[in-house]
Every structure is written in structure tokens, then in C-alpha cells.
Amino acid sequence: MDMTSIPENLKAAVGRTVMEEDTISAAPVASLMATFGLDHSEIRTGDQLPPLWHGLFCNAKLPPDRLGVDGLARDEGLLPAAIDYPNKLFGGARFDFRSPLHIGDRIRKESQVMSFDFKNGRSGEFIVCLVQHRVSNDDGLAIVEDNNVIFRPASPTAVGVSPELEAPPLPHADLTCVITPDPILMFRHSALTFNSHRVHYDRNYVVERGYPGLLVQGTLIARLMLNMLSYEKPDFTISEFSFRSGKPVYDTGDITLGISVDGDTADFWAAGSDGFLGMTAYAVREAIS
Asked: How many Å apart are CA 219 and CA 203, to the nearest integer?
């Protein structure tokens, strides 16, 4: 790990831990189902929460004066801001599902900054932060979630919008579907996950910073992927899921999702309207004991 080029306030954040407690209530679950066009008329206490939907709960409720101009937390939050690396993006995540969560559960999320790593790649300098979330209910640890957060320097041109000659062929998929990231979908998902990062809903903000459109949340794409898997393979109970962000996906056109299931594994990809991969993902079926 190269810490020499990492700002001091980021170094000081390693080991920082915050706790959030919440109750898995039916209303946010029903609201996200409605957002995805799913039937929510039969939701009941005790119903199992779909994978990744724990993100509706235990989100930090920071007041406006603790947020930066981008809508993210300043130094008072889990992850501090970095003056020389002001652009903060979600790079990917891995989820280990230990036991199910249910509507009505009282849950606790412990979030910890694990590390920072300085990188210098084709797109320039950036910093990768690993954050781990551990979600528990009364039965014990239910989910371990590792997030990669990318800190990038300010640039006259937004990341990922440089012109490309031609997109490469997309990977094989057993099934594909097309999603339109319309403003209603984008707004509802940001609101339900209490994500105030302005790149996802404030068009004036992204235009001023040189982006071609609103940035579609990686977690939104991931949840749409798992919805697709649940519809096609309802008996595929997930024990592990991971995704990695590629080229940014904007709301300037449709998103194509692809899925291939091979026994106890499933592969996913998502491509933006430009034909480039914006995300790849992988799921493992829970072993039958």
C-alpha cells in the first residue's frame, strides 16, 4: 500500500467506525418495489428482504450543514473529503450473505474505513478506499459488505466522457433486457437510499462539471440485475454477490443488462447507450445443506 501520496486527513480516517441502527419496515420496501414496477400488495412483516435491499436502511442521517457541495458528507462523516481529490465515485462492492434479513427485524450496521491505496493508471492518479459494512440482526451477523470508493482529482473534463472510436462486442448473455434510466427511477432510488450525491439527480450540477448526463448509481444497476435473476431463476438463493464498475453509465440513453446462469453461478453485465460496459457482476448460489 502506497500511503505517501494520500492526504493526511484520509490517512487519519483509517480505522474510523460509525454505527447505525434501524428497523426494516415495510414502507421503504414497498416503495422500492413500486419504483421497479413490482407488485407490493402482499408485503407482510416477516417477509424476507431481497438481496441488496438492506441498503434502504441504516443510512447516515446527516443534516445539510454536514454535507459538501457535492451532497456527500464532509469530514464529520465516515469518509472525509479530500481537497486534491474532490471527485468521489463508487468503484464496486462485494457482499457475503450469511443469513437472511426480514421485514420487522431490528438491525445494526457497523461501518469501518479499512484502508486507502494510491494508484496511478491510464486515467491518471486516484485513491482507492476500502470500506467494510457489517449488518447484524438479533440472530447475529447477516451481511458483510466491502465497498471500493474511488477518489479522483478535479479535471476540466469529467471522468469517462472522452470520445471512443467504437465499443467492443458485448459478452455473451443467455438473456438480455433494456432499462430506461428515466428521471423518476433515478430520483426515487436516490431518495429511498438517502443518497444525496448530486451527480445522480441534479442535472445542472453535472452539466457544470462537464458530464454528459446524470450518473446512474452502481447500486441501482446491481439491484436491477438481481431483480432480473429473481424473475428468471426464483430458486437461485444468493450467498455471494460482487460487482465492479467500468465506464460510467449516464441517463442519456437505455441501459442493456445481460445475464448468464451456469449451475450455481451467474454472470451479469450492464452496458450504457454507447455500447461500453458500465458494470460486470457475479453471483454464487447458496449451497443446499
From this structure: 19
Question: What's the rounded Cα separation, in Å, for the pair 68 and 4?
Answer: 26
Given a cut of 80, is residue 1 above it in pLDDT?
Answer: no
What is the full DSSP assignment across 155-208?
-SS-TT-S--S-PPPPPP-SEEEEE---HHHHHHHHHHTT---GGGT-HHHHHH
Measured CA to CA, the distance from residue 71 to residue 232 in angstroms comes to 37
- Give the 3-state secondary structure of residue 106: strand
End-to-end CA distance of the chain: 39
227, 232, 268, 271 from 174: Cα distances, Å = 16, 11, 10, 15
Cell numbers placing 192: 429511498
Answer whether 271's CB lies under 8 Å from 197's CB.
no
Which distant-in-sequence residues (6+ apart) come within 8 Å of 116 by Cβ? 1, 3, 6, 10, 11, 13, 14, 127, 128, 129, 130
Going by C-beta distance under 8 Å and a sequence separation of 6 or more, which residues neighbour residue 152? 85, 87, 88, 89, 123, 124, 125, 126, 159
Strands lying side by side in the sheet with 106-121: 17-23, 106-121, 124-137, 140-152, 87-97, 238-245, 277-285, 265-271, 255-262, 175-179
Residue 260 identity (one-letter amino acid)? S
**pLDDT tops 70 at residue 104:** yes
Q: Which residues contact 93 (CB under 8 A, 6 or more apart)?
A: 145, 146, 147, 148, 218, 219, 222, 242, 243
- Domains in the chain with CATH codes: 8-285 (3.10.129.10)
The total of other beta-carbon atoms located within 10 Å of residue 91's CB is 18
Cα–Cα distance measured from residue 244 to residue 250, given in angstroms and rounded to the nearest whole number: 16
Place of cell 420487522: 104
The per-residue pLDDT for 288 is: 73
Look at residue 162 in the predicted model and tell me its pLDDT.
52
pLDDT at 79: 85
